[in-house]
Amino acid sequence: MSSPITGTSPSAADAASNPPPDSEAGLDNRARAVAAAPSDPQRRSRRLQWILAGVVVLLLALFPIYQGGSLLYIGLTCMAAAVGAIGLTLLTGVTGQLSLAHAFFLAIGTYSYAYLSGEPGGQAVQYGGLGLHPVLGAIGGVLLAGVAGLLFSPIASRLRGIYLGVASLSLVLIGQHILFNWDTVTGGFNGRPASEFSLFGFGFSNDRPENLFVLDVPFGKNERLWYLFLVILVLACLFARNLLRSRPGRALQMVRDREVAASVMGVGVARYKAYAFVLSSLYAGLAGVMLALILRPTPESFGLVLSISYLAMIVIGGLGSVVGAVVGATFVTALPAIFQQYSDLFPFLAQPGTGGLDASTLAKFLYGGAVVVVLLVEPGGLGAVGRRFIATISGAARMTKRTVKSANPQDSPTTDSAPSQRDSPPQREAPDRASNQSDRDEEHR
Amino acid sequence: MRLFLELLINGLSVGAVYALIALGFVIIFKATEVVNFAQGSLLFIGGFTISEFSDDFGFFPALLLGITVAAFGAVLIERILAIRSTQASVNTLAIVTIGVDIIIAAELVRRVGVDARTLRDPFGASTVNLGGVEVASSRVAAIVVAALLVSAFFLAFKYTKWGIAMRASAEDPEAAALMGIRRGRVSAIAWILAGLLATVAVVFLVAFPTPGLDGSVTRLALKAFPAAILGGLDSTGGAIIGGLLVGMAEQLALGYDNYLSFLGGGFGEIMPYVIMIIVLLVRPSGLFGTKDLARV
How far is B199 from A164, CA to CA, in rounded Å? Predict the structure, then answer.
């Protein structure tokens, strides 16, 4: 399901959207990268990316015709996670603000939707519901998550670096406490159901219309939701990609790379950090609503583990890369589900609780290990690997390789932006980097 | 009043344990600029090793073994981080430790299973009477041991060669390296000490009256984060005060739970995080942390 939906162009988006936060590449390099006119191989590579993206979306659109059942459902969870991961990568990858609070904002989206458009009910625990139209509920869920992000942003924009990471941790734990205790809204420990979605009288459920067939394939709830989610995901990707190439997007990246330089250039650092926080929580709210449509939300599931798995997604995909976030979300979400689903294909897997190696433990090993390996070996993540591959087959890489070798072989952020820097002499890179490094050190003291 | 005294002593004891863990965080952060999210796993490694061997060897040899294994694990993590520590940002290294934590915690949770294990510590379920207040003796021992360890550490920071080297390289890494201080050794020792502190802490963290060692121990260890942060990440004294503050607040809130029921049951569990948010709102670098100044 890897979908390079955002066909990032090497000339602008690569240089700008994808270096991980530790990239030291000077801003002038970036400016030069943007200014460089796209040459033939680059244009070919960009075209290839768009074509690939189109093919992937087309294949995804055809998927429900061929596959139903559990694979379809796993796909739905992946798409919901992908939207949330894009939001987190805008905050953590692009703006450089480490956040462990993502699960909290997801939960707000989920429960706002469930409360706003749900009906009152429940046996052991009575929960309420406003019974609004699902569309209103969904919009409310997204907006309320954004409001929560806005409320936290005064704290977020004041704290620097790692302090924010730990402070956001508290948001998840406090949020979970609220979820468990505010049972008139959340249904308490056992959760509550959310109502099914409908748009202009068309139900994204098994009825309205009942017995819908497309090409002789029965289109039930999951098939219908598939297309809804696919549209949302594509839009979410395009929005994030365009944002990264716009003026505010560049400002966000500058806040990550050099706060001082950003504020000297007239970027309101605190304000932009707050923007990033709100935007990321809006995305999280949307993902939360999507989650509410496919599973019964319980407070237990919106804990620190969820936050950490979102962090793992964007790291594995490559911090700051939109495509990477989608790929990473698929990797982290689908892995345990597929192990569980096809456990008979993996004979070394034991049943959960027997003390052997069970599916969820194996998945945790794999994605925990992937996080470590990616950050230590290829900080650009799977996104960077994919981009390099595309560049290779489109012929844009011939120059690239030489540039990279002579510049800084062990630093892959340089590798990312290399195709666009081919016009500039590679040696320029080294002194730039050195001076940046020492500047940064001074800043720390 | 009786209840208050009892809660105060309990809070002091729990706080002392948090302070030990937080001290480990701070030592690592000062020496290597890494925020170690895998601290909970170090605790878990130490506790697990003790529970494995205390049956056969007795508690104290098992404790030594636990400290060794945890310290070894810590150095291993340090070596992994060292691969990129010069280029990567603080956030990146922190995320690497999260990745390590995912792996270690998953494996140990699987091995421990659902039943809580006892470490067979010598305190057992005994209690002591302190001025009319019954307190578990493990709680009193925690205060004593933590006080001893903390004073030993402060003396070491001030007088030993390693302590001076560490403070020097925290102050100015480059100058320290130029003066012949081996940063690799400083950071390795810092991680070893963190492993030692974590293992000692876990003994008291899962001793009577708590049910014992199980998967939730990493969540308990998480509370050392607010302790370290609200004291200021780069202040060793702050870690101690932060730990005590967090422990007391938590125990008091748990003890007076029925007065706090409007905030939901078990509010004490999240009390440390609430305090942290409030402190950070007023002082973004913690109570005693150095302010992060930028030179333009």
Answer: 28
Instruction: Tell me chain A's radius of gyration from C-alpha atoms.
Output: 22
pLDDT digits 0-9 by tens, A316-354: 888 888 888 998 899 888 888 888 777 777 766 666 656
Hey, where are the domains in chain B? Answer: 2-214
Q: Counting beta carbons within 10 angstroms of the beta carbon of residue B270, is it exposed (0 to 12), middle (13 to 18) or buried (19 or more)?
A: buried
Instruction: Sort B166 into a burial class: Cβ within 10 Å, 0-12 / 13-18 / 19+.
Output: buried
Which one of A154, A368, A442 has the shortest CB-CB distance to B99? A368
In angstroms, the separation between the Cα of residue A400 and the nearest Cα of chain B is: 22
Q: Is the pLDDT of residue B162 over 60?
A: yes
Residues of B with CB below 8 A from A155's CB?
Answer: 277, 280-281
| Contact flag A170-B274 (C-beta cutoff 8 Å) | yes
Residues A239-271 as b/e (b if ≥16 CB within 10 A, e otherwise) read: bbbebbbeeebbbbbbbbbbbeebbeeebebee
From B210, B83, B233, B43, select the one nearest A165 (Cα to Cα).
B233
> How far, in whole angstroms, is CA A138 from its chain's centroid?
19
Residue B267's closest chain A neighbor by CA?
Answer: A177
Residue A6 near residue A241, CB atoms below 8 Å: yes
Q: Is the Cβ of A182 closer than 8 Å to some Cβ of chain B?
A: yes
Contact between A259 and A269 under an 8 Å Cβ cutoff? The reply is: yes
3-state secondary structure of A7: coil
CB pair distance less than 8 Å for A163 and B274: no
Torsion angle defined by CA atoms of residues B57, B58, B59 and B61, in that order, rounded to the nearest 10 degrees: -40
CA distance B137 to chain A (A): 31
> Which one, of B94, B92, B133, lies nearest residue B6 by Cα?
B133
0.90 surpassed by complex ipTM: no
State the DSSP H helix or E strand holding residue A202, giving kind and residue range, or none if neither.
Answer: strand A202-203
How far apart CA A295 and CA B217 sit, in angstroms, is 29
Using CB atoms within 10 Å of the CB of residue B73, give its burial: 0 to 12 exposed, 13 to 18 middle, 19+ buried. buried
Alpha-carbon torsion (B244, B245, B247, B251), positive or negative: positive
